[in-house]
Design goal:
The chain contains two helices and 20 strands. It is mainly beta. A hairpin with a 3-residue loop joins strand 18 and strand 19.
Amino acid sequence: MRRRLLLRSCVLVLLVGAGAACSESDPEAQTPGLAARGTTMTTAKPARQNLDNRVSLTGRVTMNPVFGVVAPVAGQIRYRDVDPPQSTPTRATRVASVWAKGKSHRVDVPAGAVFAGRLVDDRSNVTAGMPVVSAKRIGYGLVAEIDGAQAYQISDSLATVQAQIKNGPGPFACKVLGTIAALPAGTIPDPPAPEPSTDPSAGPGARPVVPVGPPPDPGRPVEPSEPTGMRLVCTAPSNVKLINGATATLQVVTARAKNALVLPVEAVAGGQGSGKVDVVGPDGNRETRDVVLGLSDGKVVQIKSGLTGDETVAVPGPNLPPAKPAPGQPGGPADPMGGK
């Protein structure tokens, strides 16, 4: 009996030893894991391309829209008496002059439009770009109302506008008229009173003869313009069919940059002209750099300075530190006036 137990024990020891030997020779099993925190998974290289900055506006086809004509220079404005036209003008109409340093600078209402009112008093001092005359486009135009934020985006970039009529023609180039500034109500002065004349057949002591009633109207009367908000007014090419009241989209190109150095917007933190990017070195380490930002089309952003173009940049960009809470807010410093 003892021999049998001893034999079984030896066999068990041999089996355990063999299993241990086999397990030591097998390689350790590998399990998938997560990359270390901060490891850069995606990168991008700066590229060069032409870039446009665009602003989209909602507009409408409008009959006889009113727009403003601005002073070409700073100086004193002197208005001219403008007779109502008998038909739609085919040439520009001179309505005022701005005098500066002894020189006269014309203020014209463009062809296809009529004078609709004076916006400042005669012989007032005006600044360059200030609306001084309102005009009325005869026919169809496209009008888009503008808010204050959009006004500063497009105030200096009204030369390039594309329009698309909803369910209609387009896109087509839309020629901008006047300024986007809000206009006060226009005024049209009464015609000057006729000067008295003397009947040549009367004697030396005859009284002057004063004509009765106003002078004959050479054309249709012009109603002064009503005040307007900030708006963009443009006209379509003559071959584009317009329907009054139709909805349109106007796209304004506010700025252009040729051969600009750009990065995906996801790679850049910040905005309003300044930002930060993470440059990835050959060893995989990140270095945060300050960059100067330019135009953006929503997909890429222009890098005006801070990079040479040979770097590799991490995507997404760096996380900016959160703003510190103001006094009195949770987590902020104590209120100096005694609040919490």
